[in-house]
Structures are given as structure tokens and as C-alpha cells.
Amino acid sequence: MFAPVEVVREPKRAAALLQADKRRLLEMLREPDSSAGLARRLGLTRQQVNYHLRELEAAGLVAFIEERRKGNCVERLVRATAASYLISPEAMGRLGCGCGHPGCLCPPPDEPVSPGDKLARAAARAIRAASEGSCSSAPFEAEVGFADAVSRERFEREVSEAIAALVRKYGAPEGEAERYRLVAACWPVTEPERCTCCGGAGERTAEAGKESM
């Protein structure tokens, strides 16, 4: 089944995604193609393409679609399993968990870590929950600008205080209700967000812009 986004949690599959040649193949395989077709499009030999396709299939990132006769040959068509892939922090091993369970090599929850590391751990849990279909609501996102660092710090403090008040107001003691996890974080915007499929230049984006005019 072809998915819009697939979360990768296994180190072996993540390693395949980190290789440039394999990523190029996956980008081309958003639509079914054969090794011969890919070789022509990428300027690689068929042997090179077959090598990478075997590894991608073994990692479960490429799936067989059908066989197609072309002249005297039979081409094997394959396709990527998703339009885009998201590597969960837990695929990186020790840095991705922070569970603190006895015998586990992950850092304990109370180990001093940077805000970035804490966000990565929280993201790993959120991604895992999303991939399992257990999220209860859509995430809230907003972009805000600050005149200076002092304003940003005040904003972050007020957000933390507001969330803490809501948790105290609605939270029930452990064991008396279902437990949910809430994550709030603030990080700088370094560049405009773009579609993972078309990079922001697709026909759908252009049509949406016309409709809004």
C-alpha cells in the first residue's frame, strides 16, 4: 500500500534512507518503474540500479507492483512504499528514547540534556504515537515573531504557566483516567516550509494561490 508519509523506526531502514543514491531512486519511484527505466532516467547502469533496488526492497522501502512485457523482455515494476519518509529519532538508538527502564542503555529521564535533545525525545514519542494511530487530536501550530529575546522569553514563560494551569484544572490523578501526553516547544524558523513532495512548486500549490486571489 502506498502511503503519503511513512515513519521509519528501524536503524537498518533509516540507514538506507541516508544514502544519496537510494534516496534518488525513491524519489523517482513515487510512480512505478523498472530498473531499466530508472537506469535511463538517472544515468546509471542497470546493475547499479538493481543493486540499490534489492537493498531497498529488503528494507521494505520499495514494493513489487507487477511484471510488464516489453518486446522479448519482461520488466519488473516496483514502487516506493510512500511519497515521503520520516526518520523517527528512536531509529538512532540511545538518543531517541530516554525511557530510563532498568537494564536499558537509554539515558534516564532526569539526566541533564539540552532543550534540543529534550525536543528530539518528545518528537520520538509523538511520532511513534502518530504512526500507531493513537493521537487524539490534530496538532496546533502557529508562527510568531518577537521583537527581541526578552519578548520571546516572556512569551515562553506565559505559555508554560498557562499550560500548567490547564493541567492542574483538568488533570485527574494517575489511575483514575486515561493518560495523555502534551508537548509544547518553540524553535526558530530558518526557512519557509515546503511540501515534501513538490518542494512548493507543484500544480496544486499554484492552483491554491489562484483561488485565494
Q: What helical percentage do the residues reach? A: 40-55%
Class computed from helices, strands and strand pairing: alpha+beta
CATH class of the largest domain: Mainly Alpha
Mean pLDDT: 78
* Major β-sheet annotation: 2 strands, parallel
| Alpha carbon gyration radius | 22 Å
The sequence of SSEs as H and E is EHHHHEEEHHH
Counting DSSP E segments of at least 2 residues, the number of strands comes to: 4
CATH topology term of the largest domain: Arc Repressor Mutant, subunit A
Quick synopsis:
The chain has helices spanning 11-17, 20-28, 35-42, 46-58, 115-131, 149-170, 203-212; strands spanning 3-8, 62-70, 73-80, 82-87. By secondary structure, it is of the alpha+beta class. A hairpin with a 2-residue loop joins strand 2 and strand 3 (73-80).
How would you describe what is shown here?
By secondary structure, the chain is α+β, with helices and mostly antiparallel strands. The chain has three domains: 84 residues, Orthogonal Bundle (Arc Repressor Mutant, subunit A), CATH 1.10.10; 39 residues, no CATH class; 45 residues, no CATH class. It is built from seven helices and four strands; from the N terminus they run E-H-H-H-H-E-E-E-H-H-H. Strands 1-4 form a two-stranded parallel ribbon. A two-stranded antiparallel ribbon has the order 2-3. A hairpin with a 2-residue loop joins strand 2 and strand 3. The longest helix is centred in the C-terminal third of the chain and has 22 residues. The C terminus is likely disordered.
